[in-house]
Amino acid sequence: MNHESVKQLSFSDAPDSFFRSSISRKTGWIFVLVLMVATANIVVVKHMLSDLNDVAATLNVSGKLRMLSQKIAFETLNLSLSPRQSGKQAVSDDIRDFEAALMALRQGGSVFGYNIPQLDIQHQSRLHKVRGEWVAYRGAIEDMLAKLAPFGQPAAGQSEFAGLARDAAIVLASTENLISFIVTETQKVQQRGLLKLYALLVLDILILAAIFVAIRRNIVRPLQDLSAYCGALAVGNYQVRSRFQSFDEIGQLSAAFNHSAQRIGDLLDHVEQERQSLVRAETMFRQLAENSGVGVYIVKDEHFHFANAKMAAMFGYEPTEMMASVGIFDIVTSDDRQVVRESIRSRLDGELREVHYERQACRKDGSQFEVEVFGSKMQIDGHDVTIGVMLDISRRKETEREGQLAALVYQNTSEAMMVTDAHGTIVTVNPAFTEITGYPAMEAIGLNIKILSSGKQDQAFYQTMWHAINTTGKWQGELWNRRKNGELYAERLVINTSFNEDGTVYRRIALFSDVTDQKQNESLIWEQANFDFLTGLPNRMMFHNRLKQEIQKSQRVALPLALIFLDLDNFKGVNDTLGHVIGDELLKQTAQRLRSCVRGSDMVARLGGDEFTLILAELSEISVVENIARKILQALAEPYLLAGEELYVSASIGITFYPEDAGTPEELLKNADQAMYAAKDSGRNRFSYFVRSMQEVAQSRCRLARDLRLALASAQFCLHYQPIVNLATGAIDKAEALIRWQHPERGMVNPAEFIPVAEETGMINALGDWVFRTAAQQAVQWRTLLGTQFQVSINTSAVQFRRDGIRPDDWLAWLQELGLAGDGIVIEITEGLLLDAGSVVTDTLLAFREAGIAVSIDDFGTGYSSLSYLKKFNIDYLKIDQSFVRNLVPESSDLALCEAMIVMAHKLGIKVIAEGVESAQQRDLLRAAGCDYAQGYLFSRPVVAVDFPVSV
Length: 952
Ligand code: C2E
Ligand code: MG
Ligand code: MG
Known about the structure:
By secondary structure, the protein is of the alpha+beta class. Helices cover 54% and strands 19% of the residues. The structure holds ligand C2E and magnesium ion (2 copies).
């Protein structure tokens, strides 16, 4: 209660004696007081009146006294003049009355019918004087009377009368004096009486005023104040208090009011508190309900009496709409209606106070979702209602289902899962964890993840990993860990973090799988992808990657790099003659030798076959490259010990520089390749630097390829024919068709120049087809002209024996069309074709053989033919390469070789043709050696068909 606001009604404190009595007693007191005042007034007035009466009586008596004194004198005188008895008696009576009056005046008493009081002491002296004079007077009277003649005669003379008159006058004067005093006294008495009356009036006024004041103070004002107090109470100021205290009814009324006000105030405070707590409760309820994340509802008579915004939104309604028109059964699925009805009934009947259940609910649009309901019964306005909260638990349910699924997965997945706390202490693991690490769950839980640490990763690795985890909460990668049995294993690990609400780490979740096998496979695959299986050197792919990196590095450090391209000379021969095993061994040893020639930081790679590359990076001194090239040539020139035999192999090296010669890996490789070919062209077993002209050569080859495409269509090709002479008879038995290209700008282009280009571009197939058809036509003519033994040789490329090359059926059909027998054609192939012969080669050769077409091995001796192949493919002719013939002189090794080849061929039933015979000596030596045929400038250069010599 606010005491300051309390208005205190104050009353002046009345004397206890008065206040201690009740109102009735107080009224009695007042009545008595008034009565007393009235009585006192009456008494006083009466007393005054009495005094006045006494004064009047006294005056009367005094007057009578005076009158008697005169009367006596007159009577006496009268008697004296006319004595009579009756007169004498009258004088005696008057004397008696005079004395009685005097006596009454002196002592008080009744006289003449008046009751008079004794005169005051101050009059006594006058009375005494009157008496004294009276006595003298009476004596004079009596004397006179006594002297009275008996009847009718004057008893006294003049002197006597004079004395009597004098005495009478004296008495009269005294009585007059007395009366005058008494009158004066009476006036005083009257004055005093009047004063008394005034005093009485003043007293009355005072008393009445006192009574008025008392009544006003003790009754009227308290009543007024109480009235005001009641007024204050009436307007609701229950803090106001009456300070009036008394033992009377007003005091009791005041106390009762105070008490009532207190009670009412308390009651109102209580009511206010109740109201406020109700308001608070309602506000809280409203706030809670309106701001709640859950649906809050009150259902009354199966309708929504209240639904908060969330509740309405949950079901797709507006809150007002939901409260106005939606019933509880509108949100229940039809299957659940009965159950819900029963649930509400049991709640309202008091069987169940609270319910908690989960079930499907229907939205306004008919879609269903899962809700969780907490309902209880309460009363509103005497009505039983159900109040409850409802949660949309669809997501939770989904999460639960996912959680169950996750738990199922967790338990059954082959991926290990481990959960740790923020400090890396293992909290839980799944069975797969145990399977991979060997730690049973009970053993692992509580231990730190460091138990798995293998020490294989360096500190930097872990620093990077933890930096990622600490900044993003995530990390994934691969690392090596250790199983319980000490074995290392590779795992692919994904780490995720679960955070507390304050952002601190709650859990770290690690998922990992054992990828040891995969890693090993990958590493194998990687090795296979990047390394040459045979030599262990980086392969073409790795070389390319490394070259790219080295180019970038070279840019950074501003130091040049050298690319060396190395090709073994005649490796194919080694392979063909000594077999692949030896060839492989040769390559392995070559690789080792190459490695020994360079720094560890330099790269030696095998591109394939007998092609090697070396990257010499960060060259501060260009000249070292030449030293290395020499060193390599030297190292490779050392004899190889293969299968117990010494073998000598040389190599051709091409060298190019970055950035001087080219800017890209591809260009560099091309440059080095060209330089290597240049070295080969310059006689092999040497190195050659790339120069721009080489590039020009390559470019011209490019142009050539482009021109080739047009050449066939525009009939720029023609065939020249070179006679093949039978050495025994000197007759021209055969002719070799040699292609010529009449280039519109460049003139005649050598087949050695364009055949390889045609091979590279695949045009060789079309070209070869054209050669075959043209040569066959020529053969028809010459067979008619020169006889049916005449044969035309046609050169073929190995490329034509690939899958999309020669179609034997077409060729044979062409022969048939021309009417040319198969034996009119000889197909020249190279040695290598037989070595690499696959099914296509075999089938094609077989088809030719069956058609009677002869097969000749061109340039024999330059490659590495296997004799068994010659036998296998039923070869008809060997053409000894002109390199053996060129320097053919008696007793030369070439002659020996030629003789050996001829003998061997003959042993196999193969005829021998020598190429490039330019001199008679060569012809003679060959003939002497048993060679069957020869061709060369000695007999004729290749010529157009019309110029073809019929005989030499
Ligand atoms: P090849 O088949 O060995 O042909 C013999 C080559 O030796 C011809 O060169 C010929 O002109 C040359 N020649 C002939 N006699 C002598 C001689 O006494 N001394 C010297 N120094 N050379 C002689 P050509 O015509 O330039 O042909 C070169 C190569 O081109 C041929 O070598 C052959 O492999 C290939 N070739 C020519 N025509 C064709 C063709 O139509 N198709 C295919 N695939 N290759 C062909
Ligand atoms: Mg040939
Ligand atoms: Mg040849």
